């Protein structure tokens, strides 16, 4: 007797493993996500090959926008606009409050070098001699300026 | 979709009785919950960015007024001038000691740095950038210097009178 194929009626697919995996992924993404604090102005950071990590704690971020506006942000607090003269007071004040404070400068790639020069002068004045410039990592061997 | 079954027992409740029937074999429809779970999953997957920004570390000299004496032959001067129009373009000129300035493409300085660094391991780079030049050029040059392992450099703006030395 030829094995006649039975017509499959009412196939039930067990969805349990798929749902399990979906929940696992959901929990993973929920626990690893960190929401960026809202940005007052969009900043496009330049590229470099440096692969040092930006410090995560005790950090003060100085932002420079496209139009050379200066912002600062202490830890995860909201950003505030400021100017160069004020920046010096803020850095001094924050460094007195927290001697382990590290400064990261996040400047837009089309901001003027002059602004950076002024900020570096402030760093020098406030004796913050080590700081980081936040950049986007490029892995290609090509120059970071070729992008 | 996913549903929870409890094994059904063969007990049938009798008709005509007021007593609440024992709930056996309750089926919970999991579909809405799974829908929400997938929605959240897709949301988190789309919004998560794994890439953390990296940093270029800068160390300033502790004393701004300290003078460091360097033999002139060990000094490489690099000047970056913003062209006056609004094209955001820059031109880079470099020289060793008092040689005449040579122009180089801003993104192709690394071979020069490497060659000069090999010739003279004591080389110090004096980097002067126009205040109007874009910040990305500064990062790009520092990046190329670090690639060429020239970690001793100084950074300053270009004074107007030094523009005249350049073969513009």
Which key features would you list for this structure?
A: 147 residues; alpha/beta; Nucleotidyltransferase, domain 5; 7 strands; B: 168 residues; five-stranded mixed beta sheet; 8 strands; elongated
Question: Could you characterize what this model shows?
Answer:
- The complex is a heterodimer of chains A (147) and B (168).
- Chain A is of the alpha/beta class and 147 residues long.
- Chain A has a domain at 47-137: Nucleotidyltransferase, domain 5.
- Chain A has three helices and seven strands, in the order αβββββαβαβ.
- Chain A has helices spanning 16-32, 84-97, 113-125, and strands at 47-48, 52-53, 59-64, 70-74, 80-82, 102-107, 130-137.
- In chain A, strands 1-7-6-3-4-5 form a six-stranded mixed β-sheet.
- In chain A, β4 and β5 form a beta hairpin.
- In chain A, α2 (84-97) crosses α3.
- Chain B is α/β, with parallel strands linked by helices and 168 residues long.
- Chain B has a domain at 72-165: Nucleotidyltransferase, domain 5.
- In chain B, strands 6-5-4-7-8 form a five-stranded mixed β-sheet, with helices on one face.
- Chain B starts with a strand and ends in an 11-residue tail after the last strand.
- The model of chain B has no long low-confidence stretch (mean pLDDT 78).
- Classes of the chains: A alpha/beta (147), B alpha/beta (168).
Helix segment tally of chain A = 3
CATH class division of the domain at 47-137 in chain A: Alpha Beta
Quaternary structure annotation: heterodimer
Q: Structural class of the helices, strands and pairings of chain B?
A: alpha/beta
Low-confidence stretches of chain B: none
What is the CATH fold-level name of the domain at 72-165 in chain B? Nucleotidyltransferase, domain 5
CATH architecture of the domain at 72-165 in chain B: 2-Layer Sandwich
- Helical fraction of chain A equals 25-40%
Q: What is the CATH fold-level name of the domain at 47-137 in chain A?
A: Nucleotidyltransferase, domain 5
Distance between the termini of chain B: 73 Å
**How is the largest sheet of chain A built, in terms of strand order?**
1-7-6-3-4-5
Average pLDDT of chain B: 78
Largest sheet of chain B: 5 strands, mixed
Q: What's the alpha carbon Rg of chain A, rounded to whole Å?
A: 25 Å
What number is the mean pLDDT of chain A? 83
H-E order of chain B: EEHEEEEHEHE
Number of strands of chain B: 8
